[in-house]
Amino acid sequence: MYQAQSPDEEALVGAARDFGFVFKMRSPNTITIEILGKEETYELLCILDFNNVRKRMSVSMVIIILGFVVLVCDCLAVK
To answer: Does residue 2 sit within a domain?
Structure first.
């Protein structure tokens, strides 16, 4: 079961699940997701929690299969 930190995060994870990207589990150093029926584990390099100055949360991880680093951001549109 996924414990979201905010309603926005819960909605994002729910929508991803509906499109075939399912959160499975997380350890301190990895995250496991199911992508269209295939389970994959990624190494987490760094997590920058959401704060009011940056207005976003970021996660950097290694995609082991492809061997490059990806930065994943969740951000708000700022007016």
So the answer is: no
pTM: 0.64
Contact 57, 50 (CB under 8 A): yes
Domain membership flag for residue 30:
yes
Full domain range(s) for residue 51:
7-75
Tens of pLDDT along 13-55? 889 899 998 989 989 888 898 998 999 888 888 777 777 786 7
Q: Does a structural domain hold residue 33? A: yes
